[in-house]
């Protein structure tokens, strides 16, 4: 009769200075709600893009008249309002998201202080430094994801990778659409720019949905790990 193998033991507890466990649940919920607001503003922007694409298509086809002009003015107004709404929602979400990510990063350092490729300061700075902001934030989230997994388990990065890929793609398409809109001089070019912007907003919706998935899953992983009693630390405060 074979002797069962003992369960994997957690690594030695060695929290870095200034790191202690705190629940990310409240910040996680707030981040998910604000990401939902981002999705709502993106859907409004998609509607505005569609109106812009429709009216510029009519103009490109030579359709004129007072009704077309009124529709064009209405579409332009909604287009501008949607851009402002998206900007406000994005800024508010970014602030709360970074607070959540900082909390998650500190917790992850308590779980496994040796499993992080980036220093804690990069949790915020990585998003604002040119070039490295293309992969440093994803690395930080992935390391926190690994540290928050159950001891001895292998945590895949599929949700993180899918979110980050769509996020980068949406940024590239958005920059291209914005440049096309600024440089457009004919109705055909305006229609193409509106079409590209609609595609960009659709990508942003998908990226925001996956961001919610990552936030919810990572928050649950951290709470489950602490409440399971696997760490010789006090319960979440």
Overall strand count:
0
Number of structural units classed as domains: 1
Number of helices: 6
End-to-end distance: 45 Å
The helix fraction, in percent, is: over 70%
Class from helix and strand fractions: mainly alpha
Radius of gyration: 23 Å
Q: State the order of secondary-structure elements, H for helix, E for strand.
A: HHHHHH
For the sheet with most strands, the description reads: none
**Approximate strand percentage:** under 5%
Average the pLDDT over all residues and give the rounded result: 84
- Note the quaternary state here: single chain
Shape: elongated
Low-confidence stretches: 1-14, 232-237
Task: Tell me what the structure shows.
With 237 residues, the chain is an all-alpha fold. It has one domain (25-224). The radius of gyration is 23 Å and the shape is elongated. Helix content is 70%, strand content 0%. It has helices at residues 25-60, 66-111, 122-125, 136-148, 158-183, 187-227.
Question: What are the key terms here?
Answer:
disordered C terminus, elongated, mainly alpha, 6 helices, 237 residues
Task: Kindly summarize this structure in a few lines.
The chain is an all-alpha fold and 237 residues long.
Topology diagram in text:
Blueprint: H1 25-60, H2 66-111, H3 122-125, H4 136-148, H5 158-183, H6 187-227
Helix pairs in contact: 1-2, 1-6, 2-4, 5-6
